[in-house]
Amino acid sequence: MKINKWLIAIALLIVVAGLYFFISTKNVSRVKQSVANDDNSTIVLPTPTSDPIDRFQSIPFDTLNKDASFLGQYSSCSEPNARALLVEINKAGSTVTELFNNNTVNGYIGFAAMGTLEMNCSDRSEIMSYFSSILNSPESSQISIVVAGDIIASVGQPQATQVIVDWAKMYKGDASDAIYKWLFKIRDEGSVKILTDATGVQSTFLNSKNKDAMIKVAKDWCGARSKNLQPEGCKNLVF
Fold it and tell me: In the list 46, 142, 179, 186, which could disulfide-bond 191, CB 3.0-4.6 Å?
């Protein structure tokens, strides 16, 4: 009987420990999910550097090339390849600051993956719907948002401009630098009209800084062209 009591006691301890682990894991998962869903902080863009590769000088170049060589299998622009490259980027850092401060081999792989993805998929409208979903997903990291926005902006067509404008209106944090950078790339009359329409009084933004950036980029884009070369949409602006 004593043995049975000990066995029962041990079994109960195991059950309690298992329940504690399960509850703890669930709580941690909820915290991480909450942080991801509520991540509407300032979008930071990469700052120009003379040679970003210099920060990996402490690691032998052969080691860097060998460890990053697997990225070669993602050399074409497709949704599966884009998804795989985004995974590698996020392993190195979930924000631009984290990625560009990661001087490890992992950081090099993330940096190389980012360059590969933007080189492969820039100006490719057929992949835009995938990057639009990344841009608008509440679970996307800041680095994923930056990469998605860069690629969408490179398409330069009205549907791409509309995606960025709609996202800018709904983003709660300060994305003014990103908005200016992305929308200054527009190159057709349809995009100009979408941009200038978004600067109107009736156009609402969750963050006023993002609307200010929209107004500034519209004025700068139109102002950089002589009046006889300005698209019709520029006439909506008051300089």
Answer: 186
